Amino acid sequence: MNPLIVNLGERSYPVFIGARAMQYLSSALESVGSGQVFVVSNPTVAPLYLPAVKTMLGNRLHGTFLMPDGEQYKTLATYTEALNAVMESGLHRDGIILALGGGVVGDLAGFVAATFQRGVRFLQVPTTLLAQVDSSVGGKTAVNHALGKNMIGAFHQPNAVVIDTTTLETLPERELKAGLAEVIKYGVIEDANFFTWLEQNMPALLQRDPEALRYAIEVSCSIKARIVSADEREQGVRALLNYGHTFGHVIESYAGYGNWLHGEAVAAGMVIASHLASAMQWCDVSDYRRIKALVEAAGLPTSAPNMQWQDWQAGLYRDKKVQNGLVRFVLPTAIGCAAITEQPIAPELLQASVAHQ
Ligand code: NAD
Ligand code: GLY
After folding, report:
1. Spacing, Cα 318 to ligand 1 middle (Å)
2. CA 20 to 30 Å from 324, out of 18, 180, 276, 294?
3. Do 123 and 189 sit in the same domain of this protein?
4. pTM of the shown model
Protein backbone atom coordinates (compact mmCIF):
# COMPACT_ATOMS: atom_id res chain seq x y z
CA MET A 1 0.00 0.00 0.00
CA ASN A 2 1.30 3.45 -0.92
CA PRO A 3 0.70 5.67 2.07
CA LEU A 4 -0.38 9.27 1.81
CA ILE A 5 2.46 11.56 2.88
CA VAL A 6 2.12 14.66 5.02
CA ASN A 7 4.95 16.81 3.68
CA LEU A 8 6.68 18.65 6.47
CA GLY A 9 10.34 18.41 5.48
CA GLU A 10 12.27 16.26 7.92
CA ARG A 11 9.08 15.79 9.97
CA SER A 12 7.14 14.30 7.00
CA TYR A 13 5.19 11.16 7.81
CA PRO A 14 3.12 8.42 6.17
CA VAL A 15 -0.61 7.88 6.62
CA PHE A 16 -1.62 4.27 5.86
CA ILE A 17 -5.33 3.96 4.96
CA GLY A 18 -7.23 0.76 4.22
CA ALA A 19 -9.26 -2.20 5.35
CA ARG A 20 -7.24 -4.33 7.79
CA ALA A 21 -4.55 -1.66 7.69
CA MET A 22 -3.51 -2.72 11.20
CA GLN A 23 -1.12 -5.04 9.36
CA TYR A 24 0.71 -1.91 8.18
CA LEU A 25 1.57 -1.10 11.76
CA SER A 26 4.83 -2.97 11.20
CA SER A 27 5.61 -0.74 8.15
CA ALA A 28 4.70 2.28 10.27
CA LEU A 29 6.97 1.07 13.07
CA GLU A 30 9.76 0.57 10.57
CA SER A 31 9.41 4.13 9.32
CA VAL A 32 9.40 5.37 12.91
CA GLY A 33 12.60 3.49 13.78
CA SER A 34 13.61 1.35 16.74
CA GLY A 35 12.41 1.95 20.30
CA GLN A 36 10.00 0.60 22.90
CA VAL A 37 6.32 1.47 22.49
CA PHE A 38 3.93 2.63 25.22
CA VAL A 39 0.24 2.35 24.26
CA VAL A 40 -2.46 4.77 25.45
CA SER A 41 -6.05 3.63 24.90
CA ASN A 42 -9.30 3.34 26.84
CA PRO A 43 -11.42 0.48 28.28
CA THR A 44 -13.85 0.59 25.33
CA VAL A 45 -11.31 0.36 22.53
CA ALA A 46 -8.68 -1.80 24.23
CA PRO A 47 -10.70 -5.06 24.35
CA LEU A 48 -11.51 -4.64 20.65
CA TYR A 49 -8.15 -3.70 19.14
CA LEU A 50 -5.34 -3.82 21.72
CA PRO A 51 -4.73 -7.56 21.23
CA ALA A 52 -4.00 -7.01 17.50
CA VAL A 53 -1.75 -4.05 18.30
CA LYS A 54 0.09 -6.08 20.95
CA THR A 55 0.67 -8.88 18.43
CA MET A 56 2.09 -6.41 15.90
CA LEU A 57 4.33 -4.81 18.54
CA GLY A 58 5.70 -8.09 19.90
CA ASN A 59 8.59 -7.46 22.26
CA ARG A 60 8.53 -3.73 21.46
CA LEU A 61 5.50 -3.34 23.75
CA HIS A 62 6.72 -1.46 26.82
CA GLY A 63 3.48 -0.72 28.69
CA THR A 64 -0.12 0.44 28.44
CA PHE A 65 -2.29 3.07 30.05
CA LEU A 66 -6.08 3.00 29.73
CA MET A 67 -7.63 6.41 30.36
CA PRO A 68 -11.32 6.62 31.30
CA ASP A 69 -13.55 6.87 28.24
CA GLY A 70 -15.03 10.29 27.46
CA GLU A 71 -14.40 13.90 26.51
CA GLN A 72 -14.89 14.89 30.17
CA TYR A 73 -11.63 13.03 30.93
CA LYS A 74 -9.55 14.94 28.37
CA THR A 75 -8.12 16.93 31.26
CA LEU A 76 -4.86 17.87 32.95
CA ALA A 77 -5.76 15.37 35.71
CA THR A 78 -5.89 12.43 33.25
CA TYR A 79 -2.80 13.74 31.47
CA THR A 80 -0.96 13.61 34.82
CA GLU A 81 -2.14 10.04 35.40
CA ALA A 82 -0.93 9.05 31.94
CA LEU A 83 2.44 10.70 32.57
CA ASN A 84 2.71 8.90 35.92
CA ALA A 85 2.13 5.58 34.15
CA VAL A 86 4.73 6.40 31.49
CA MET A 87 7.26 7.47 34.13
CA GLU A 88 6.62 4.41 36.29
CA SER A 89 7.05 2.16 33.24
CA GLY A 90 10.58 3.51 32.86
CA LEU A 91 10.13 4.57 29.24
CA HIS A 92 13.19 6.41 27.94
CA ARG A 93 13.49 9.37 25.58
CA ASP A 94 13.93 6.98 22.65
CA GLY A 95 10.50 5.48 23.45
CA ILE A 96 7.40 5.90 21.33
CA ILE A 97 3.85 6.73 22.48
CA LEU A 98 1.08 5.00 20.50
CA ALA A 99 -2.49 6.35 20.66
CA LEU A 100 -5.13 3.68 20.04
CA GLY A 101 -8.63 5.15 20.03
CA GLY A 102 -10.66 8.17 19.03
CA GLY A 103 -9.77 11.84 19.11
CA VAL A 104 -9.90 12.03 22.90
CA VAL A 105 -7.23 9.35 23.33
CA GLY A 106 -5.25 10.79 20.39
CA ASP A 107 -5.26 14.37 21.70
CA LEU A 108 -4.31 13.36 25.25
CA ALA A 109 -1.68 10.77 24.26
CA GLY A 110 -0.27 13.28 21.76
CA PHE A 111 0.12 15.86 24.52
CA VAL A 112 1.93 13.24 26.62
CA ALA A 113 4.22 12.51 23.64
CA ALA A 114 4.79 16.25 23.10
CA THR A 115 5.83 16.88 26.69
CA PHE A 116 7.35 13.70 28.15
CA GLN A 117 11.09 14.41 28.28
CA ARG A 118 10.40 17.46 26.03
CA GLY A 119 8.93 15.31 23.29
CA VAL A 120 9.13 11.71 22.13
CA ARG A 121 8.02 9.98 18.95
CA PHE A 122 4.31 9.40 18.44
CA LEU A 123 2.16 6.94 16.50
CA GLN A 124 -1.54 7.43 15.84
CA VAL A 125 -3.87 4.45 15.35
CA PRO A 126 -7.27 6.19 15.16
CA THR A 127 -10.41 4.08 15.55
CA THR A 128 -13.27 6.58 15.12
CA LEU A 129 -14.28 8.19 11.83
CA LEU A 130 -13.63 11.62 13.33
CA ALA A 131 -10.11 10.68 14.38
CA GLN A 132 -9.43 8.97 11.04
CA VAL A 133 -10.45 12.01 8.95
CA ASP A 134 -9.21 14.78 11.19
CA SER A 135 -7.61 14.56 14.62
CA SER A 136 -4.96 11.89 13.92
CA VAL A 137 -3.38 13.96 11.15
CA GLY A 138 -1.84 17.38 11.67
CA GLY A 139 -0.17 17.29 15.07
CA LYS A 140 -2.61 19.24 17.23
CA THR A 141 -2.57 17.78 20.73
CA ALA A 142 -4.44 19.14 23.74
CA VAL A 143 -6.51 18.74 26.87
CA ASN A 144 -9.52 20.84 27.86
CA HIS A 145 -9.75 23.47 30.59
CA ALA A 146 -13.00 24.05 32.47
CA LEU A 147 -13.16 27.45 30.77
CA GLY A 148 -12.45 26.35 27.24
CA LYS A 149 -11.89 23.48 24.86
CA ASN A 150 -8.35 22.39 23.90
CA MET A 151 -6.90 25.33 25.82
CA ILE A 152 -3.77 23.48 26.97
CA GLY A 153 -1.72 21.71 24.33
CA ALA A 154 1.08 21.68 21.81
CA PHE A 155 1.80 21.05 18.16
CA HIS A 156 3.48 17.66 17.96
CA GLN A 157 3.31 15.76 14.68
CA PRO A 158 2.93 11.98 14.71
CA ASN A 159 5.68 9.96 13.02
CA ALA A 160 3.12 7.75 11.31
CA VAL A 161 -0.66 7.25 11.20
CA VAL A 162 -2.34 3.87 10.64
CA ILE A 163 -6.01 4.11 9.65
CA ASP A 164 -7.71 0.71 9.68
CA THR A 165 -11.16 1.37 8.22
CA THR A 166 -12.48 -1.99 9.49
CA THR A 167 -12.36 -0.61 13.05
CA LEU A 168 -15.38 1.49 12.07
CA GLU A 169 -17.52 -1.68 12.03
CA THR A 170 -17.77 -1.53 15.84
CA LEU A 171 -18.27 2.24 16.11
CA PRO A 172 -21.66 3.30 17.60
CA GLU A 173 -23.92 4.98 15.03
CA ARG A 174 -23.98 8.31 16.85
CA GLU A 175 -20.16 8.44 16.71
CA LEU A 176 -20.14 7.58 13.01
CA LYS A 177 -22.49 10.49 12.32
CA ALA A 178 -20.36 12.81 14.45
CA GLY A 179 -17.34 11.92 12.27
CA LEU A 180 -19.33 12.76 9.15
CA ALA A 181 -19.49 16.38 10.32
CA GLU A 182 -15.73 16.78 9.79
CA VAL A 183 -16.01 15.00 6.42
CA ILE A 184 -18.68 17.49 5.30
CA LYS A 185 -16.40 20.30 6.51
CA TYR A 186 -13.75 19.38 3.90
CA GLY A 187 -16.33 19.50 1.11
CA VAL A 188 -17.54 22.95 2.16
CA ILE A 189 -14.16 24.61 2.65
CA GLU A 190 -12.12 23.00 -0.10
CA ASP A 191 -13.76 20.65 -2.60
CA ALA A 192 -17.11 21.27 -4.33
CA ASN A 193 -16.94 17.93 -6.22
CA PHE A 194 -16.44 16.08 -2.95
CA PHE A 195 -19.43 17.96 -1.47
CA THR A 196 -21.58 16.80 -4.42
CA TRP A 197 -20.24 13.25 -3.99
CA LEU A 198 -21.28 13.43 -0.31
CA GLU A 199 -24.77 14.60 -1.28
CA GLN A 200 -25.06 11.53 -3.50
CA ASN A 201 -23.37 9.02 -1.18
CA MET A 202 -24.57 9.97 2.30
CA PRO A 203 -26.89 6.90 2.51
CA ALA A 204 -23.96 4.61 1.60
CA LEU A 205 -21.77 6.24 4.24
CA LEU A 206 -24.47 5.86 6.88
CA GLN A 207 -24.80 2.18 5.91
CA ARG A 208 -20.99 1.88 6.37
CA ASP A 209 -20.36 0.86 2.79
CA PRO A 210 -16.62 0.03 3.06
CA GLU A 211 -15.66 1.51 -0.32
CA ALA A 212 -17.60 4.74 0.30
CA LEU A 213 -16.00 5.10 3.75
CA ARG A 214 -12.51 4.43 2.39
CA TYR A 215 -12.99 7.03 -0.35
CA ALA A 216 -14.34 9.66 2.08
CA ILE A 217 -11.44 9.04 4.49
CA GLU A 218 -8.86 9.20 1.72
CA VAL A 219 -10.20 12.48 0.28
CA SER A 220 -10.52 14.01 3.75
CA CYS A 221 -6.98 13.03 4.75
CA SER A 222 -5.55 14.29 1.44
CA ILE A 223 -7.19 17.67 1.95
CA LYS A 224 -6.02 17.83 5.55
CA ALA A 225 -2.48 16.74 4.58
CA ARG A 226 -2.30 19.44 1.90
CA ILE A 227 -3.49 22.18 4.27
CA VAL A 228 -1.21 21.08 7.15
CA SER A 229 1.78 20.84 4.79
CA ALA A 230 1.12 24.42 3.67
CA ASP A 231 0.53 25.87 7.15
CA GLU A 232 1.56 23.60 10.01
CA ARG A 233 1.20 26.18 12.81
CA GLU A 234 -2.09 27.75 11.68
CA GLN A 235 -0.70 31.09 10.63
CA GLY A 236 -3.04 31.22 7.64
CA VAL A 237 -4.92 28.66 5.59
CA ARG A 238 -5.10 26.01 8.36
CA ALA A 239 -7.57 28.24 10.22
CA LEU A 240 -10.12 27.22 7.56
CA LEU A 241 -10.18 23.75 9.15
CA ASN A 242 -11.95 25.45 12.04
CA TYR A 243 -15.07 25.98 9.95
CA GLY A 244 -18.01 25.36 12.29
CA HIS A 245 -15.70 25.03 15.30
CA THR A 246 -15.94 28.60 16.65
CA PHE A 247 -19.68 28.14 17.25
CA GLY A 248 -19.26 24.40 17.90
CA HIS A 249 -16.79 24.80 20.74
CA VAL A 250 -19.16 27.22 22.50
CA ILE A 251 -22.01 24.69 22.22
CA GLU A 252 -19.80 21.83 23.48
CA SER A 253 -18.54 23.80 26.43
CA TYR A 254 -22.01 25.22 27.27
CA ALA A 255 -23.67 21.77 27.12
CA GLY A 256 -20.93 20.21 29.28
CA TYR A 257 -18.18 18.18 27.63
CA GLY A 258 -19.49 14.82 26.45
CA ASN A 259 -23.17 15.81 26.31
CA TRP A 260 -23.00 17.12 22.76
CA LEU A 261 -20.38 15.17 20.82
CA HIS A 262 -17.67 17.29 19.21
CA GLY A 263 -18.89 16.38 15.70
CA GLU A 264 -22.50 17.20 16.58
CA ALA A 265 -21.51 20.63 17.88
CA VAL A 266 -19.38 21.25 14.77
CA ALA A 267 -22.33 20.22 12.56
CA ALA A 268 -24.62 22.82 14.15
CA GLY A 269 -21.71 25.29 14.05
CA MET A 270 -21.26 24.78 10.30
CA VAL A 271 -24.94 25.49 9.65
CA ILE A 272 -24.81 28.60 11.87
CA ALA A 273 -21.67 29.82 10.07
CA SER A 274 -23.23 29.28 6.64
CA HIS A 275 -26.40 31.09 7.79
CA LEU A 276 -24.20 34.01 8.84
CA ALA A 277 -22.30 33.87 5.53
CA SER A 278 -25.53 34.01 3.60
CA ALA A 279 -26.87 36.87 5.78
CA MET A 280 -23.62 38.78 5.11
CA GLN A 281 -23.90 37.91 1.41
CA TRP A 282 -20.58 36.07 1.45
CA CYS A 283 -22.34 33.08 -0.09
CA ASP A 284 -25.62 32.46 -1.83
CA VAL A 285 -28.62 31.39 0.22
CA SER A 286 -28.72 28.22 -1.92
CA ASP A 287 -25.24 27.28 -0.57
CA TYR A 288 -26.54 27.67 2.98
CA ARG A 289 -29.54 25.46 2.13
CA ARG A 290 -27.33 22.75 0.59
CA ILE A 291 -25.04 22.72 3.64
CA LYS A 292 -27.98 22.51 6.03
CA ALA A 293 -29.57 19.73 3.94
CA LEU A 294 -26.36 17.67 3.89
CA VAL A 295 -25.88 18.04 7.66
CA GLU A 296 -29.51 16.94 8.10
CA ALA A 297 -29.01 13.99 5.74
CA ALA A 298 -26.10 12.86 7.93
CA GLY A 299 -28.51 12.77 10.88
CA LEU A 300 -26.71 15.64 12.61
CA PRO A 301 -28.12 18.68 14.45
CA THR A 302 -28.56 21.84 12.39
CA SER A 303 -29.07 24.30 15.24
CA ALA A 304 -27.72 25.06 18.69
CA PRO A 305 -29.42 24.29 21.99
CA ASN A 306 -31.41 27.16 23.48
CA MET A 307 -28.68 29.48 24.80
CA GLN A 308 -28.62 33.04 26.07
CA TRP A 309 -26.78 35.61 23.97
CA GLN A 310 -24.46 36.27 26.95
CA ASP A 311 -23.38 32.59 26.87
CA TRP A 312 -22.49 32.93 23.21
CA GLN A 313 -20.57 36.17 23.72
CA ALA A 314 -18.46 34.79 26.58
CA GLY A 315 -17.69 31.58 24.66
CA LEU A 316 -16.92 33.20 21.32
CA TYR A 317 -14.34 35.53 22.88
CA ARG A 318 -12.42 32.52 24.20
CA ASP A 319 -11.84 31.22 20.67
CA LYS A 320 -8.19 30.66 19.74
CA LYS A 321 -8.65 32.70 16.54
CA VAL A 322 -9.48 35.90 18.47
CA GLN A 323 -7.03 38.61 17.38
CA ASN A 324 -6.88 42.12 18.87
CA GLY A 325 -10.17 41.46 20.64
CA LEU A 326 -11.87 40.51 17.36
CA VAL A 327 -13.63 37.16 16.96
CA ARG A 328 -12.79 35.80 13.49
CA PHE A 329 -15.19 33.40 11.80
CA VAL A 330 -14.53 30.91 9.03
CA LEU A 331 -17.36 31.39 6.56
CA PRO A 332 -18.11 29.72 3.22
CA THR A 333 -17.99 32.00 0.18
CA ALA A 334 -19.39 29.19 -1.97
CA ILE A 335 -19.51 25.40 -1.74
CA GLY A 336 -15.84 24.37 -1.90
CA CYS A 337 -14.47 27.71 -0.79
CA ALA A 338 -14.15 29.54 2.54
CA ALA A 339 -12.48 32.59 4.02
CA ILE A 340 -11.99 34.13 7.44
CA THR A 341 -13.67 37.35 8.59
CA GLU A 342 -11.33 40.19 9.55
CA GLN A 343 -13.92 42.87 10.42
CA PRO A 344 -16.33 43.08 13.36
CA ILE A 345 -19.68 41.42 12.64
CA ALA A 346 -22.88 43.30 13.46
CA PRO A 347 -24.16 41.70 16.70
CA GLU A 348 -27.71 41.48 15.33
CA LEU A 349 -26.48 39.31 12.42
CA LEU A 350 -24.63 37.04 14.83
CA GLN A 351 -27.61 36.86 17.18
CA ALA A 352 -29.93 35.94 14.32
CA SER A 353 -27.60 33.17 13.10
CA VAL A 354 -27.02 31.52 16.48
CA ALA A 355 -30.76 31.62 17.20
CA HIS A 356 -31.96 30.32 13.80
CA GLN A 357 -33.69 26.93 13.70
P1 NAD B 1 -13.89 9.87 21.25
O2 NAD B 1 -12.44 9.75 21.23
O3 NAD B 1 -14.55 10.22 22.53
O4 NAD B 1 -14.50 8.50 20.72
C5 NAD B 1 -15.89 8.36 20.66
C6 NAD B 1 -16.37 7.08 21.38
O7 NAD B 1 -16.15 5.96 20.54
C8 NAD B 1 -15.66 6.78 22.68
O9 NAD B 1 -16.58 6.22 23.59
C10 NAD B 1 -14.63 5.72 22.26
O11 NAD B 1 -14.22 4.91 23.32
C12 NAD B 1 -15.43 4.95 21.25
N13 NAD B 1 -14.67 4.24 20.23
C14 NAD B 1 -13.55 4.65 19.61
N15 NAD B 1 -13.25 3.82 18.61
C16 NAD B 1 -14.19 2.84 18.62
C17 NAD B 1 -14.43 1.70 17.82
N18 NAD B 1 -13.69 1.43 16.74
N19 NAD B 1 -15.47 0.90 18.13
C20 NAD B 1 -16.28 1.20 19.18
N21 NAD B 1 -16.13 2.30 19.95
C22 NAD B 1 -15.09 3.10 19.67
O23 NAD B 1 -14.42 10.96 20.19
P24 NAD B 1 -13.89 11.39 18.74
O25 NAD B 1 -15.08 11.92 18.06
O26 NAD B 1 -13.09 10.35 18.10
O27 NAD B 1 -12.90 12.59 19.06
C28 NAD B 1 -13.35 13.82 19.59
C29 NAD B 1 -12.17 14.57 20.13
O30 NAD B 1 -11.26 14.86 19.06
C31 NAD B 1 -12.52 15.89 20.74
O32 NAD B 1 -11.86 16.01 21.98
C33 NAD B 1 -11.98 16.92 19.77
O34 NAD B 1 -11.60 18.11 20.39
C35 NAD B 1 -10.81 16.20 19.20
N36 NAD B 1 -10.38 16.69 17.88
C37 NAD B 1 -9.07 16.96 17.72
C38 NAD B 1 -8.61 17.39 16.49
C39 NAD B 1 -7.15 17.64 16.29
O40 NAD B 1 -6.76 18.15 15.24
N41 NAD B 1 -6.31 17.24 17.21
C42 NAD B 1 -9.50 17.54 15.42
C43 NAD B 1 -10.84 17.24 15.62
C44 NAD B 1 -11.28 16.80 16.87
N1 GLY C 1 -8.98 20.18 13.38
C2 GLY C 1 -8.40 21.43 13.00
C3 GLY C 1 -6.95 21.34 12.68
O4 GLY C 1 -6.35 20.30 12.75
O5 GLY C 1 -6.35 22.35 12.37
Report:
1. 23
2. 276
3. no
4. 0.96
Choose the catalytic residue: 175, 232, 234, 252. 234
Indicate the SS3 state at residue 207.
coil
Q: What digits encode the pLDDT tens for the residues 133-151?
A: 999 999 999 999 988 789 9
Q: Do 203 and 238 belong together in one domain?
A: yes
- Give CA–CA dist 270/330, Å, rounded: 9
Residue-range definition of the domain harbouring residue 47? 4-170
Cβ neighbors of 352 (< 8 A, separation 6 or more) are 275, 279
Residue 290 near ligand 2, beta carbon < 6 Å: no
Q: Please state the atom number of ligand 1 nearest to the C-alpha of residue 105.
A: 2
Residue 112: other Cβ atoms inside 10 A? 26
246-267 pLDDT, tens digit each: 999 999 989 987 799 999 999 9
Nearest to 95 by CA among 72, 137, 64, 53: 64
Choosing from 106, 138, 170, the residue where a domain stops is 170
Closest CA to 108 of 53, 64, 161, 67: 67
Looking at the fold, whether 180 and 161 belong to one and the same domain comes out as: no
- Examine the domain organization and report whether 345 and 200 are in the same domain: yes
CB of 329 within 8 A of CB of 250? no
Number of domains in the chain: 2
Atom of ligand 2 nearest to the CA of 241: 2
Q: Are residues 219 and 303 in the same domain?
A: yes
Shared domain check, 123 and 44:
yes
- Cβ of 234 closer than 6 Å to ligand 1, yes or no, is no
pLDDT at residue 20 greater than cutoff 90: no
- In 3-state terms, what secondary structure has residue 198? helix
Q: How far apart are CA 78 and CA 71, in angstroms?
A: 11
Domain boundary among 170, 186, 212: 170
Residue 41: give its domain's CATH number.
3.40.50.1970
- CA-CA-CA-CA torsion sign (232, 235, 241, 247): positive
Query: Do 100 and 177 fall within a single domain?
Result: no
